[in-house]
């Protein structure tokens, strides 16, 4: 078994070296020039215009270093991962309809439970944020492209093999997916004789390297590639959150990589990093959660930036307290590294340490509350338009309040000792990751859909997606909060326990309610995927480069100004966007206005 695992590890290393060698020999990745905010300037020397077109077909997507193309690749990858992780979640809820388990045997249940968590956090959460940031950060700051376009491409292409490794245990003969839960606690993860665990750890390592490379790129881009008109005072809120997130990644992900390498060494070379005679099982928890809690804010800060960016667009006013939103973002980034041990209140750590971590865990709720009040105040007395992006932003705020308040309870030592490792924790966490992070992702997809595709989605289906997602989310995860109060432990494949422990009828009812909510959620996501694909392929082409009428409220962002210039350039080059010409075919100024218009 050890020799087989070592062979697998060596082969994976050889494969990665081969990929790196191939990429290093690909010439002229940047031979074409993407359309940029300045009107077509090339990479490097601004005067060196290159007129070759992008390659066509699959070659374009395999060799592109254009930040917009890479953003679309990230988004496609993330939606696929979201579908896989969502189907795993649906399988979990189907299993728990009956106390004795409805469909799966315990081992397979544990495997999909593990893969669901890792898929949603590492294969969907981080890449969907990278999709938005890759596409729009250069547009928002007036940059030609990312600071390191080739590194940007390599960062993405590390993700598909990472996903195949994470899921590999399900598809290879004589293997099973890892059954460690997504936290991979030792000694279970160190002693589980399943090569699928090694595959999963290698896949996680690749995703961590990808995220770190991307973070370095975003930091360099925002610091060095900003347009002269973009300074720290008028940098948009989404870019601020990406900058903070990238700093968190830079400090957190390398630590996870080191912890994973030590775990692989324990599994394959009989080292004792996490053995009793070495660092002990508690060492893994410290290392993992020092990464793991900043990871929550790595995932939630950019969605907060999307919401802070979109809400003013449909409220008809600027973001209330912009500076305080920025300061609260930076405060969350700093405090996030001081709260990790609130995951370990029941491990027997020193009570004085528990008190200090409880204090910081409660304190980090303050900057989150600042953001919440600023969002609400921005909408207060505003000219609110309930478009699909705005509905998802409002849903984000309401779900985030529930998730945040339940988190405050878990930050309290005595409450956490009662509710630790129950479904209350699952409900709290999913109010954040599904009810908030995913909702902000949907808001961003719908808001920027006209830029991605040049088309408009079906508005009715978009609103149906919102309402089904909102209802399904609250039914599913509110039921889990009740299950936690009933004492139902998480990660159990069955719950046919003695009714003296907990009222079994009530526990069964709550599980069934959560499963009904999951069905509603699934219906909503099917509508989302259909709407996304059908509208992208067949949706009505936009006649107006300002589809949200943002100029009326002085909320026309730099990315839509770029979009307007793109349409103008297409017309000048003989494109097909004839309907976008102003009445009479009059020339269009740089700011997109009709040069002959007297209004």
UniProtKB/TrEMBL annotation:
<feature type="transmembrane region" description="Helical">
    <location>
        <begin position="6"/>
        <end position="23"/>
    </location>
</feature>
<dbReference type="InterPro" id="IPR036927">
    <property type="entry name" value="Cyt_c_oxase-like_su1_sf"/>
</dbReference>
<dbReference type="GO" id="GO:0016020">
    <property type="term" value="C:membrane"/>
</dbReference>
<dbReference type="GO" id="GO:0015990">
    <property type="term" value="P:electron transport coupled proton transport"/>
</dbReference>
<feature type="transmembrane region" description="Helical">
    <location>
        <begin position="237"/>
        <end position="265"/>
    </location>
</feature>
<feature type="transmembrane region" description="Helical">
    <location>
        <begin position="77"/>
        <end position="98"/>
    </location>
</feature>
<dbReference type="GO" id="GO:0004129">
    <property type="term" value="F:cytochrome-c oxidase activity"/>
</dbReference>
<dbReference type="InterPro" id="IPR000883">
    <property type="entry name" value="Cyt_C_Oxase_1"/>
</dbReference>
<keyword id="KW-0813">Transport</keyword>
<dbReference type="InterPro" id="IPR023615">
    <property type="entry name" value="Cyt_c_Oxase_su1_BS"/>
</dbReference>
<feature type="transmembrane region" description="Helical">
    <location>
        <begin position="153"/>
        <end position="172"/>
    </location>
</feature>
<keyword id="KW-0249">Electron transport</keyword>
<dbReference type="GO" id="GO:0022904">
    <property type="term" value="P:respiratory electron transport chain"/>
</dbReference>
<feature type="transmembrane region" description="Helical">
    <location>
        <begin position="513"/>
        <end position="533"/>
    </location>
</feature>
<feature type="transmembrane region" description="Helical">
    <location>
        <begin position="296"/>
        <end position="312"/>
    </location>
</feature>
<dbReference type="GO" id="GO:0009060">
    <property type="term" value="P:aerobic respiration"/>
</dbReference>
<feature type="transmembrane region" description="Helical">
    <location>
        <begin position="324"/>
        <end position="345"/>
    </location>
</feature>
<keyword id="KW-0349">Heme</keyword>
<feature type="transmembrane region" description="Helical">
    <location>
        <begin position="118"/>
        <end position="141"/>
    </location>
</feature>
<dbReference type="GO" id="GO:0020037">
    <property type="term" value="F:heme binding"/>
</dbReference>
<dbReference type="Pfam" id="PF00115">
    <property type="entry name" value="COX1"/>
</dbReference>
<keyword id="KW-1133">Transmembrane helix</keyword>
<keyword id="KW-0472">Membrane</keyword>
<dbReference type="InterPro" id="IPR023616">
    <property type="entry name" value="Cyt_c_oxase-like_su1_dom"/>
</dbReference>
<feature type="region of interest" description="Disordered">
    <location>
        <begin position="572"/>
        <end position="599"/>
    </location>
</feature>
<feature type="transmembrane region" description="Helical">
    <location>
        <begin position="357"/>
        <end position="377"/>
    </location>
</feature>
<feature type="domain" description="Cytochrome oxidase subunit I profile">
    <location>
        <begin position="61"/>
        <end position="543"/>
    </location>
</feature>
<feature type="transmembrane region" description="Helical">
    <location>
        <begin position="389"/>
        <end position="411"/>
    </location>
</feature>
<comment type="similarity">
    <text>Belongs to the heme-copper respiratory oxidase family.</text>
</comment>
<keyword id="KW-0812">Transmembrane</keyword>
<keyword id="KW-0479">Metal-binding</keyword>
<keyword id="KW-0679">Respiratory chain</keyword>
<feature type="compositionally biased region" description="Acidic residues">
    <location>
        <begin position="586"/>
        <end position="599"/>
    </location>
</feature>
<keyword id="KW-0408">Iron</keyword>
<feature type="transmembrane region" description="Helical">
    <location>
        <begin position="431"/>
        <end position="452"/>
    </location>
</feature>
<feature type="transmembrane region" description="Helical">
    <location>
        <begin position="464"/>
        <end position="486"/>
    </location>
</feature>
<protein>
    <submittedName>
        <fullName>Cbb3-type cytochrome c oxidase subunit I</fullName>
    </submittedName>
</protein>
